[in-house]
Amino acid sequence: MFDWIWLSRVTLLGLAGIGCSAALLLPFLPENHQNYRKNSDVNLENIPSVTKAVVPPPLPVIQRQIITKKAGNKVNQAPPFNLQESWNYYASLFATPTSLGMVAIGVAEGNYRLVLSQGNLYVQYTKLYFGHTDPGNLSWGEVVTNYGPCSDQGRSGGNINAAEQWCLQRALSQLPTQLMDLNAAGINPNTDIEAVLNAADLYNQAKPIHSRYFPQALVMARRGGKTGIEALAWARTASFYLNANGQMDLQTGQNQASGLIGICARENRPVTEWECVYGDQLRRVKAIADVLDKYRQIYQR
After folding, report:
1. Are the C-beta atoms of 202 and 232 separated by less than 8 Å?
2. Contact 239, 202 (CB under 8 A)
3. Can you give the three-state secondary structure of the chain, one letter per residue?
4. What is the pLDDT of residues 69-83, one digit of tens each?
5. Among 120, 130, 178, 189, which residue has the least CB neighbours within 10 Å?
């Protein structure tokens, strides 16, 4: 079960230590890195690795009513869902480009690596962060260059600062809807950070309708006996099957993940449409789970 103490500590990730580490990192940033993709003379292989140190935040004072406790065989449940309270916590996870929520999306996209070394966490930018062609868009003949942690579909024009801010604003814009959708499906966001982060990542990856159906699909998966990573990956995949009325339909619906299916076709993978999409969703779910595991190793000590 989700631990409110742990979440409260992690919400400070993007706020604690970022300022003090930024000065140390500036010498390692590529010169004029916001626009370097526009310079044809720049060789991506020569760009130095950029790493930001994550400083463990101090333990804040937590109100007792939001802490789950065990007293003998009795378990005090987390408080009922409250949108404002949930927003206050989860919005903090998308406060900066190196806050937990955006790190999870960035790692799932392949734009970040999260490194745990000697009891410290480091967010490392991959070369993709500074510009890469989106493979999904190629499926319908569109060439788009992505930038930043969330792969911004070229909206920043190569300005990394703009890409980072766009990614944060987009994630925050849909967060209330994702929290309400999870609660409406019977999933308390306060106790399921994995579901929240996967909804946010699915929204980042695909059309909004798929992340809207994700909570319902996750309930179906869990009722069917699936758990953990398997349930999350199954639900994400199921959300892509829509019928002619735009409703999730695993019986007669068509797989709408045309970008992913196009990638599998170009690479001649011997897989069904379900297997193609499920493989990608499983990879992303595992990436998010790995991020959470590393954070827990630090903040639950």
Report:
1. no
2. yes
3. CCCHHHHHHHCCCCCCCHHHHHHHHHHHCCCCCCCHHHCCCCCHHHCCCEEEEECCCCCCCCCHHHCCCEECCEECCCCCCCHHHHHHHHHHCCCCCCCHHHHHHHHHHCCEEEEEECCEEEEEECHHHHCEECCCHHHHCCCCEECCCCCCCCCCCCCHHHHHHHHHHHHHHHHHHHHHHHHHCCCCHHHCHHHHHHHHHHHHHCCHHHHHHHHHHHHHHHHCCCCHHHHHHHHHHHCCEECCCCCECCCCCEECCHHHHHHHHHCCCCCCHHHHHHHHHHHHHHHHHHHHHHHHHHHCC
4. 344 455 556 678 899
5. 120
Q: What is the pTM of this model?
A: 0.80
Distance CA 17, CA 26 (A): 15
Angle of CA points 250, 254, 258, to nearest 5°:
125
Q: CA 296, CA 291: separation in Å to the nearest integer?
A: 9
pLDDT in tens, 178-226: 999 999 999 999 889 999 999 999 999 999 999 999 999 999 999 999 9
* CB-neighbour burial class of residue 267 (10 A; exposed 0-12, middle 13-18, buried 19+): exposed
Q: How many residues does the chain have?
A: 301
- CA–CA separation, 293 and 72 (whole Å): 28
**Which backbone phi and psi does 137 adopt, to 5 degrees?**
-65, -25
> What would the two tokens of residue 100 be?
């937990």
Closest residue by Cα to residue 274 from 252, 258, 255: 255
Half-sphere exposure of 234 (CA within 13 A, CB side): 17
pLDDT, mean over the chain = 80
Compute CA 87 distance to the chain's CA centroid, rounded to the nearest angstrom. Answer: 16
Nearest Cα to Cα of residue 290 among 155, 103, 156: 103
* Burial class of residue 175 (count of CB atoms within 10 Å of its CB; 0-12, 13-18, 19+): buried
